[in-house]
Design brief:
By secondary structure, the protein is mostly beta strands. Helices cover 10% and strands 39% of the residues. The chain contains 4 helices and 18 strands. The strands form 3 sheets. Strands 1, 4, 5, 9, 14, 15, 16 and 18 form an 8-stranded antiparallel beta sheet that branches. Strands 2-8-17-10-11-12-13 form a 7-stranded antiparallel beta sheet, with no helix packed on it. A 3-stranded mixed beta sheet has the order 3-7-6. Strand 14 and strand 15 (191-196) form a beta hairpin.
Length: 278
């Protein structure tokens, strides 16, 4: 059994959500595809519902994958106009499980291979249903296109945006973010433990958040997977303002040449609402 299959099949009886993307198209009973409305964080892309930006490939087409692979493929489309008349030069994909699957406590994990390119901003995260930041945000994996590191974070009232509880994980040169890794968050009633390939990289406890504001992680949350381009998080790392906010010219060229994709081998959630105390 491969390393990928070991992670995917672990505690299979306890899976409350699982998708290995082997069916050839996105399962709309599990996932919503989001379309751009309000723009956040000065991001530079429009999210669209299209096989241009969200599609599947067979596992044997991508070395190291298992059954099937979800691809989120941002593209350079100068002058793209949304339904409400806004104009963007990039399109991309965002999916979530809002009102289709949510949970309280357990472990959310995804096996992903990330693209290289300063200013790219893919993320795997979770939100509750209240107004943000009271909903509580768990960022299992965020990435700004620099292959030597990823980050994990919690956001809530008093500790959100650029003042969130955030930690970086640095890879070795032999196993940077462009190779396959499993990113996970173990969530209980009083702490969240973030891991990369089963190794703890960050632990946030309720007292840590209480120092800044209330703990807002006893509600149900749904999964989100998206691929943003540019915006405040990449900008505060690379300081790039032109040609696009947070996106340098060399990354624009990669996008023009269709060289940028996010690959997701599988996503799973284990545990249940009974895991822990309220």
């Amino acid at each position: 059994m491969s390393h990928s299959e070991i992670f995917a099949n672990r505690n299979e009886a306890d899976h409350i959500f699982f998708d290995d993307f082997k069916q050839g198209e996105l399962d709309r009973e599990k996932w919503n595809v989001m379309v751009t409305e309000k723009i956040y964080n000065n991001e530079q892309q429009a999210y669209i519902d299209s096989p241009e930006t969200i599609y599947m490939v067979a596992g044997d087409q991508i070395p190291g994958s298992s059954n099937g692979v979800l691809i989120i493929h941002p593209r350079y489309r100068p002058g793209f106009e949304t339904a409400d008349g806004k104009t963007f030069d990039f399109i991309s994909g965002r999916i979530d499980t809002r009102e289709k699957f949510d949970f309280r406590y357990g472990t959310a994990a995804a096996r992903m291979s990330l693209p290289s390119g300063s200013g790219l901003w893919p993320a795997f995260w979770m939100l509750g249903y209240d107004k943000w930041p009271a909903s509580g945000e768990i960022d299992v994996m965020e990435y700004v296109g620099e292959p030597d590191w990823v980050s994990a974070a919690l956001h809530g009232p008093g500790y959100y945006g650029e003042s969130g509880l955030v930690n970086k994980h640095f890879f070795s040169p032999q196993e940077d973010a462009t190779t396959w890794h499993v990113y996970s968050a173990e969530w209980s009633h009083d702490k969240v433990i973030f891991k990369v390939d089963d190794q703890t990289i960050y632990r946030v406890t309720r007292p840590m958040t209480d120092f800044f504001g209330p703990w807002v992680f006893n509600n149900t949350k749904y999964l989100i997977l998206n691929f943003a381009l540019g915006g405040i998080y990449p900008f505060k790392t690379n300081g790039i303002r032109t040609p696009y906010y947070g996106i340098p010219e060399e990354t624009v060229r990669k996008l023009e040449e269709d060289q940028v994709t996010l690959a997701v081998d599988w996503i799973r959630v284990t545990g249940s609402e009974s895991s822990g105390e309220s």
